[in-house]
Amino acid sequence: MSSSETGAAVEAVFREEHGRLLAALVRRFGDLDLAEEVTSAALEAALVHWPVQGVPAKPGAWLMATARRKAVDRLRRDQAYAAKLALMQVDAVTEPVEGAEFPDDRLLLFFTCAHPALPPEVRGALTLRCLAGLGTPEVARAYLVPPATMAQRIVRAKKKIREARIPFRVPGADEWPGRLPGVLQVLYSIFTEGYVASSGPSLQRADLAAEAIRLVRILRLLLPAEREVAGLLALMLLVHARRDARTAADGSIVLLQEQDRGRWDGPMIAEGLALVRVALTGGPAGPYAVQAAIAALHDEAASVATTDWPQVVALYDVLLVLTPSPVVAVNRAAAVALRDGPAAGLVLLDALRDSDKLRDYGPLHVARGELLERLGRRGEAVSAYGKALDLAGTEPEQAHLRRRLAALSS
């Protein structure tokens, strides 16, 4: 096997096994820094040995055995860990055991990374670091901050885990209802940043959205009976299926009503629709299931005009009860405009625009501008688009709004 082929094999294995390996080591040794150190060391060992010996039949088990041995060696060299090592009664593994399997403890990392004691801004970063296997520079790029800034955040988060004694475990049955939504929110936040970037030269970051989907697939594998996990995966798939049609070749925005629906990902939509049925069956629907149902109506329609807008509005009514969010209210108002006309939608948006939470919410001002433009109120539309332009984060959004303003001024 050539060095390039070996490197590709190691990368594929590492991507697949990193989260499982790190989680198993965290559970065994109770130290995230140590687990990360020896996980990286095991990968480096694979890069040395696999080109000579070949990729093992059980590469994950090989990495686990190697990492565990290195962890024991590290603990024995460090007097501060001596007592801990004795208490754990850990024995070194002298040879990799290729046929051995090790348990999948990734669920404990999902809950640790999304622990409510951690600052919201680092939960997603830790999830990408621990479960996606991204390095600090890659995580920094995902959140559009300098690597040094992200490194400091991750260090502080690990310190918080140690000092607050946040346990590396899956919550008990009594904690489950209060903790799973936080995990789902972290994953959805990662996806949202991929769907519409907060800033930068591109509207969307498909690689980040795809990584969020991969992580939710893992979570669904670990929690197959949780319908809201199915709902979140369905929502992501049904939205991500439109990715190729959302921008033109030059990166400019293509509005929903102008998109070539033939470019939507049919197999992804089919998978999403099947998951929606799972998420909506067996009891009251959760918020992600309802959002997925709304996305399904968009994906099943032949055009914007033929979308079942009464049903979309009805689902938003349900969603407002489940999650009374002003952002949901904005989306509902836009749907009402397509069901009942622009004047009806504008009344609802005008009632929302002075909310403290929405005053600087760009999509509200974009929606107002579009409705005002449809009503022929050009001066007010210019004002709304101007406000939206001030708030727009990405270059394609800014360019799109400038074009709208230029068209109104001509």
From TrEMBL:
Domain RNA polymerase sigma factor 70 region 4 type: 113-161
SUPFAM superfamilies per the UniProt record, alphabetical: Sigma2 domain of RNA polymerase sigma factors (SSF88946), Sigma3 and sigma4 domains of RNA polymerase sigma factors (SSF88659)
Keyword Transcription: yes
Pfam families linked: DUF6596 (PF20239), Sigma70_r2 (PF04542), Sigma70_r4_2 (PF08281)
Annotated InterPro entries: DUF6596 (IPR046531), RNA_pol_sigma70_r2 (IPR007627), RNA_pol_sigma70_r4_t2 (IPR013249), RNA_pol_sigma_r2 (IPR013325), RNA_pol_sigma_r3/r4-like (IPR013324), WH-like_DNA-bd_sf (IPR036388)
All copies of domain RNA polymerase sigma-70 region, residue ranges: 15-79
Keyword terms, alphabetized: Sigma factor, Transcription, Transcription regulation
Family that this chain belongs to: Belongs to the sigma-70 factor family. ECF subfamily.
Identification of the protein by name: RNA polymerase sigma factor
Species lineage: Bacteria, Bacillati, Actinomycetota, Actinomycetes, Micromonosporales
